[in-house]
What we know:
This protein is mainly α. The chain has one domain: Glycerol uptake facilitator protein (Up-down Bundle). Helix content is 79%, strand content 0%. It has helices at 2-12, 20-29, 34-50, 53-80, 87-104, 110-116, 118-123, 127-157, 163-173, 181-205, 209-222, 230-241, 246-277. Helix 12 runs antiparallel to helix 13. The longest helix is centred in the last third of the chain and has 32 residues, at 246-277.
Amino acid sequence: MATRTASRKAKSGAAKGITEGEVHDIEELSTPRTPVIYEVVRRLGEEEMERPPISLWWSGVAAGLSISFSLLAQAILTQHLPDASWRVLVTSLGYSVGFLMVILGRQQLFTESTITAVLPVLKDLNAGNVWRMVRLWAIVLTANLAGTLFASVFVTYFPTVPAELRDGMLDISRELTEVGWWQMLFRGIASGFLIAAMVWMLPTAENAKFAVITLMTWLIAVGGFTHIVAGSMEAWLLVLAGDWALWQMAAQFFVPVLIGNMIGGTALFALISYAQVMEEI
């Protein structure tokens, strides 16, 4: 529809000096309308919900392993930069590393599905779609957490990284212990919204996907927002180091951050996105 509109406008201006070649350029440069972006994201959700459980599981585990490199990259940058007020602006770029690996590698990340899997349900609300969405969420979230648990065990009990670097990862992780329950939840809302916004932006980003992913995830890190999957790497390390008992990890991190991410990605961004186009689809 957007292409036909651009084409008609371009052709109507052809008599004013616009060549046929330039008409093609106009069509190529035209920004897709919001319903087009919505449909791209919705179809992505449909594809995800149709995938076999075993595929979702291993893709989710891979995402958990990949995103653990966010904490590693942050620790490496922290280790090599002076203790200055601006350091967090640079070390937060390390947080983007894991997300770049996950998203550009098309691995399954739970917080992405808080918008992609919801849009098909909003379009056609029935028990079958709701079940497929819940199944996707359950498998991917469990797989993501299994991946970060494996990575944290590997770092803690095997000579994977130098001791000082492992200590640096723990130091960053211990910042979680200073965040209260309600702060965890509301920071999780901000994080969920930013991830959903990133997913919404990617279809039109084309060659700028690297920059979009880096910017949005950098904002999560520099803002101190909480992410259920990336943060679980830190939480597992705290459990293995004895800073948190397993129940503390579940009560103080997992529950509030999960609720926050789902509110930010689903209740806020997904519903707002659907509201923009519900009269046009």
